[in-house]
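Homework help board

Subject: predicted structure for assignment chain

Our instructor gave us this sequence and asked us to write out the predicted structure in token form, then describe one feature. I got the tokens but I'm not sure how to describe them. Can anyone check?
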Amino acid sequence: MEGLWKGIIEPPLSGRNSKPRTVGITMLIDKGLSPMETENLLENTAPYIDFLKLTFGTAALYQADVLKRKLEIAAHQNVVVYPGGTFFEIAYWQSKIAPFFSKLTELGFKWVEISDGTIQLSPAQRRQVISMALQTGFKVITEVGKKDPEKQPDELSLIKMIKNDLETGVSWVIIEARESGQGIGIFDSQGGVIEEKLNCFKEGVPQEKIIWEAPLKKQQVKLINEFGTNVNLGNIPPGEALALEALRLGFRSDTWRVG
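My token output:
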């Protein structure tokens, strides 16, 4: 831990990775922060944030100069901004992937998310579009799981998809939980973790390559206590960035274990 209290107070949980890091990722869900709001957010939280995800299709709603300025502000703080998977899915659905990738490059994006939360991609189609993104020069994050809980594949199918994505060359795979974190993915209707589902993913995939969407505090606590301070977490509300880092470091009673 760097900064004000170094050498005086040590984090109760040790081993937290500092940036640049490949394990211990924090991804925030960004539903429309302005450049000024982004700058204010990152002024004190940039060391604790790795990604800002422009959720839904909100990347389509920015003026070009505003979006470019936002990307520049984040890049200056070593934070990556990227568009959410739904935006990609719309481009795919409209058969506009090549111009979509071209426009992202023009705007200054370096990362892209590929998912099929609403559309349907066959394994071959998924590999093809991941490979196309990589060949275009993007770093790729994918997401597994459906937006509609009634259409959710079983855990073994999702694990197979995760392994295929990693073999194709993606950097991380997100496990879908939406912004609510309730009744979706590994979470029940109250946002609690379903142990049986969690155990499937614990045993089936490399944890350093998984980003768990966990927008609720109790989910973050559970996953930190389960996997440690450097578990990868996503869909964190911007106002919760410091609160999450406090959980990671044991500066909250939920993760600080005494005796």
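Reply (TA_rk): Your tokens look well-formed. For the description, you could write something like this. Residues 7 and 208 are 29 Å apart (CA to CA). That's the kind of observation they're looking for.
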